[in-house]
Write a structure and sequence with these properties.
This protein is an all-alpha fold. The protein has helices at about 5-20, 30-35, 40-45, 50-75, 80-95, 100-110, 115-140, 145-165, 165-185. It comes from Conyzicola nivalis.
């Protein structure tokens, strides 16, 4: 098995385990077992659990970004493009294995002690805020609207994870629609 395949097996196994059980509850031996490779080989590929987690988060960021962009792709107008963010969340929250935002979860478990994790979480959240700010700017709406819309999405993620229901996405979408309508009325 080549290194790329082995890395893929490790990262996929770690992603499933970390997301399902939590990072601190999963040891390197469990990742190794799930990936089906030797512990020595895994340490050759990844010197620590933190480096595995950093790769998991990098891939999750790519998947998140692709999903958000795909959701907005067919939006008819700027308003619907923004609201598509909450439709994306609704679909994600309804998945059987939804356990909340991996970045929030990771930061909550390790952020204070793991700089790679804190940096990945901050970069992910900043990237999302920048995307929302771009949507707001492109629509000609007030810049102050962007952080409000991003906070609705962030709050919906946490609420859905804790409550165990996808309802927070619809609530956040309705609040976002109210904010957008008020911004347009003021303009």
């Amino acid at each position: 098995m080549d290194d790329a395949t082995a890395r893929e097996l490790v990262v996929n196994a770690a992603d499933r385990l970390f997301y399902g059980k939590g990072i601190q509850a999963v040891g390197m031996d469990e990742i190794r077992s799930e990936a089906g490779i030797s512990l020595k080989r895994m340490y050759q590929l990844f010197p620590s659990k933190e480096t595995i987690l950093a790769e998991v988060l990098r891939r999750r960021n790519e998947a998140w970004t692709a999903g958000v962009l795909l959701a907005a792709e067919n939006a008819a107008d700027p308003r619907e493009k923004v609201l598509s963010l909450y439709d994306f969340l609704a679909d994600w929250f309804a998945e059987d294995d939804f356990r909340g935002c991996a970045f929030i979860n990771s930061f909550g478990e390790l952020g204070a002690t793991a700089p790679l994790v804190a940096d990945a979480a901050r970069a992910h959240k900043l990237g999302f805020q920048d995307y929302v700010a771009d949507l707001v700017r492109d629509a000609g709406w007030p810049a102050t609207l962007a952080p409000q819309l991003a906070l609705l999405a962030e709050g919906a993620q946490t609420t859905a994870a804790i409550s165990g229901t996808p309802d927070a996405a619809a609530d956040a979408r309705a609040a976002a629609a109210t904010l957008l309508d008020a911004a347009v009325a003021r303009a």
